[in-house]
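Q: For a teaching session next week I want to show students how multiple molecules come together into a single three-dimensional assembly. I've collected the sequence lines for a complex. Could you give me the predicted C-alpha cells for the whole thing so I can convert them for display?
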Amino acid sequence: MTRPILKLVMTTAIAAAMFSNPIAAQVPPPAKKARRVQIVKAPELEMAAGHLTIITWTTNNPGGTDDHYGVVHYGTDPKNLNKTAKSPIRLNQGHPTTTFRVRLDDLESRTTYYYRVDSEESTGKSDGVKSIMKKFTTPATGERLVAYPKRD
Amino acid sequence: MKVLLQTCAVVAVPLLLVSCSGTNAANPASPPTYNPYPSGILPTDAESETLRVQGEVQSIFLQALTEANALPPANVTGQPPTQQASGYRAIMTLGKLMNYDVNMSALKNMACASCHMPYAGFGGPIPSVNLTMVAYPGTYHFRAGKRTPQRYTYSPYFPMLQLDNTANAFFGGNFWDGRSTGYLLLSPDAEQAQHPPVDTQEMGLPDTACIAWRLSQSQYVAVFERVWGPGSLTGISWPSNTEQICSTPGGAATFGTNVTPVGLSQVDRNRANVIFDHWGQSLSAFEKSVEVSPFSSKFDAYMKGKYTMTTDELAGYDLFKGKGNCNSCHLDGRGTTLSPGQTDTSTAAQVNPLFTCFGYTNEGLPLNPRDAFYYQTTPDSLGFTANPDGFGYRDLGMGTFLRSGFGSAPSPNAEWTSQAPLRDGRFQVSSARNAGMAPSQCPTTEAPGPYFQKGFFHNGYIKSLKQLVHFYNTRDLFFFPVTSGHCPPGKTEKVDCWPMPEVTNNLDMTVGRLGLSDLEENQIVAFLQTLTDGFTVPYPNINTFTGQCSTGGSASTQGNETLIPTPTLPPCSSNVCAIPPLPNPAIP
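A: Of course. Below is the structure for the complete assembly, covering every listed component.
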C-alpha cells in the first residue's frame, strides 16, 4: 500500500469512527386501521372529585394515527348528551389493546351524568365505537371518589 | 489576560492552525449585577458555580485547540470540491471549538457549553441551578431564561419541523417548543445553535453579525477557513464600534427595537449571515459526532448481543414497552412484550432507536414557582425586562411558538398558526437517551447517591428519574387541585400529591395512572439508566466535573426541601393568552 493511500485509509477510518451513522431520523407511519374497533373493557368512572372526573375504557387497538383522542359525550339528560370532552392519547402500535382516559373538568357536584364514549383519529375521523349509555354521580364538594382501577 | 496566556502556551506547536493573536481575551466591563430575586431564589453559589463551569469549559476549549492543531493539511479536491479524508474531522473540531468558546457571548464569559456540559449529557451542569432556579444565568448576571437547557445529545437526528397531514401532528424541530424548525438550513439542530448566542437572557449578543465579528477575532480563524474556504471569515468592513456594540448585552434600551445594530453594508451583512449559518452548521456537526452522540450505551451493546441486562434492567425494559407504555412516545424501535418472560419476536424497525417519536405532548407538569423567569419583572441596568408579566406568564410551549408569541420565536409558516390551540401546553418529546448521565465521581441522578442533581422536563419541576416515572404513574391518582407548595396536610408533594397542571389544554392521558408498583417504577429507572452513553467506549470529557456531588435522602423526595409555595396566580397575561387563535378552552 503506498503511503498516500495508507494515509487516506487511516484518515477515513478516524473520520468514520468520529461520526456515527446509524439511522436517518424517521417518523413511523400510522398503523393499519383496525377493521372494527370494539370496546373490550367497558367505560367506567376512574375518579371523580369536584374539579375533575376521568372516564376510562379499553378497545382493541384502533390503528390509524398514533395521536388519538378519547371522546366522551355527556350530559345530565340521557336524551340530550349535549357536551363533549376529548383527551389526547398516543397509540402504542405494538399493543393489542388501547386504554382511553378522558378528563371532564368542572362538573357540578352531587349530580348524575349520562355518557357514551367514542374515539377518533387526530384528523377527527371517528373510530366508530358503539358504546352503551352509562352514568355516574359526582361526589359532594370536597369529597373524592376513586372508583377504578384500584390502586395496587 | 490569564486565559490568553494559558491558551498561547498550549498552541505553541508547529502547525499553528490556531493563533495567539486576537482580542478575545479582553473581557468587557460587566454591568451591575441584576438581582430581582426574592431571598432564596438565586442559589447562594450561583457566582462561584458559573466560574467553576467556566474553568471546565476553558479546559475543554484548550483540548479542542490541541485537536485543531493536529488536523492534517486540507486536501481539497474533486468537483464539487471536497476536503478529502479530513473534512468530517475538521468541521467537527471547528464545532467543538465554537461550543467551548466563552467569547461567543456579549460579556465573554459564557459558551454554549456553559449550559450544556458533557457530564450532564450536554444538559445543565450546575446542581444548585438545576435544583432551584431551573433556567441558567446568562452572560449578564443574573438574567436567566425560562426553561431547563435541553440535552443536545442526538438532537441533530431530529428532522425538520413538519406538520404531518396524515397524522395531523407535528414532528421534528429542536427546542422544547419546536421553534427551531430547520426551515432555512434544513437542519433544526443547526438553527438551534443560532438562537442562544442572540438570546437576551443567554449569551446575549445583540446582533447575529457579532458571531461573525467574534469569530473573525478568534484564535481559530484558520480552522474556520480550512472548513469553509479561504477568505470565508474575512473581508467584512467592520465599523470601529463593532466590539463596543457586541459587548453590550441584547435587549439594552440603547438598541431600541433594532436587532442589527452593527452598521454593515448589505454586502457585508450577507457575508455575516453566511458566517452565522456556518456557525450553526459547524456546531451541529460537532453534536452529531461520537463526541456527543455516540450510541455507546449498555442498551446499544445489548442490541448487539454484547451486554446482558440485569434482572431489574430487563424487567424495566419489559415495563417500558408494556405496562408502562413508555415506548408509545419514546420509541425503542422494537416490538412490545406485555408480560415478563414473553419473547420479543418482532423485527427491529430502527437499528439504533432514538427513544423519541419527535412529537409534542402536554404531560401536565405543575407550574414551578422557582423558575427564575417569574421574578424578572423589573428592568436591569440596561433597561431590559425579561418578563413584565411575572406570574401572569404561562408556558404554552408549542402553542405560543405557532402564534409567534412572547418568549418564543417567529413561526416561519403561517399555515401552522391555526394549529396553535391544539398545541397549547405541548413540549417536545425529548430522547430518553442520556437522561441519566452524570459525572464519573457521582455517577447517578438519584439520591442517596453520591448523585448529580438534575432537573427534568421543560421546567425542571421533577428532580430525579424516580420522580419522573412516579409522575407518569400516579399523576392522576394523586391529583390535587392545588399549586406547587400547597399540598394538603399529611400529603407529600411528588409522593402522594401532584399539584394541578400549569396548562390542562391538550393534556396527554396516555399516562397518569399506569398501575405500576414501587418496584416496577424502580425497574424502569434501572432500564432508563442503560440508555446512558459511555458503556462500550468512555464518554468524552465525562470526567471534567470539578464540583461537588450530593448525598443523602431519597430519590422520591429529592429536592423537596427547596419547594416553595406558589403565590396566588394572576390571570394568564394577555401577552400570552390573548394572542389569536385563542386557547380553547381559555386558560385561567
